[in-house]
Amino acid sequence: MDAAKLKALGLAVIETETAALDALRARIDEHFVAACRLMLECHGRVVVLGMGKSGHIGGKIAATLASTGTPAFFVHPGEASHGDLGMITPRDVVLAISNSGETQELLTLLPIIKRLEVPLIALTGNPASTLARAANTHLDVGVDREACPLGLAPTSSTTATLAMGDALAIAMLEVRGFTAEDFALSHPGGSLGRRLLLRIDDIMHTGETIPQVRSHAPITETLHEMTRKGLGMTAVLDDQDRVIGIFTDGDLRRAVDHNVDLHNTDVASLMTPDCITVRPGLLAAEALAIMDSRKINALLVVDEEQRLVGALGMHDLLRAGVV
To answer: What is the pTM of this model?
Structure first.
C-alpha cells in the first residue's frame, strides 16, 4: 500500500472524529448544566463507572476530574458487583458511561445506586436506553458513525465521550476557581509542581556551606573560600555581616587580565558592589527568571537587614529540576 493511501485512511479517521466532536456543541445544554450542578453539590466524590473501552475512557475522566479540583475515582462495574460497590456512599455522585446504555454490568448496579439515593449522571449514545432513562441527567455522546470502517471498534464514540468528560472537568475547574497553584499541589512531582511549589529555601546553601569573606580579605583567601564551597563565587561582608558585594569567577578573570597582585589586594577593591540579592521565600522559578534576565549564575539570599542567609547557584536549580 502506497503512502498516499495510508495518509488518506488516517485523514478519514480524523475527519470522522472531528464531525463527532462538532456534533457535541449542541449537546452542551441544560442537561450538561444539570450534570455540573450535581457535581458541584456533591459532598463526596464523583464515582466513574464503565466497561471495556468505556472503562478506559472513564478512568481518564476520573483522573482529569481529580487533578482539576473535583475529587473522583474509577470503579470497575464487574468488581463493584463483588464488593467494590461499598466504595460508593450516599454523599457521592455516580458518572456511568456506556455507549449502548444497556451494558449489563452497569444495569445490575442501578437498583443499589437508586437505593442509596446517589445522583446518577449517564453518558450514553442512546437517550432511550435503560441507563439514560434511569439517570438524573443524561448526556448524549452518540455519534453518526465510528471511524472504524467495520463500525465495530469504539473510536468516534470514545473520542466524543472523552471530550464530554473534559468539558465537565474544565467547567468544574473554572466554577471552583481552581488555580495553577492548586493544580501543582496534586502534581508535586511534575515540572509544574516544581515551578509553583519549590522555594529557594528548600535548595539554597545555608550556614557553613555559604561562601563568604570579609571585605578586607586578600584575593588569595577569597579564592580558597570559593574553591572550598564550589559555587564559583563568594559573598563579601562588612563587619556587621551585611552583604556589600559579590566576587565571582568573572571578577577573578578580570583581575588576572589586569595583572592584579592577588596576594596584596583585598577583595573589596575587585568585587561587584551592590550585587543582586533576593529574600527567603522566593519561588525557585522566580530565582531562575532573575538569573536568566541578569545573565548571572548565582544569587545571594539576604534578610531585611541585608545579612546573608543563603546562596543559590544555577546548578542547584538544575539538580532540583527547575531548569
So the answer is: 0.67
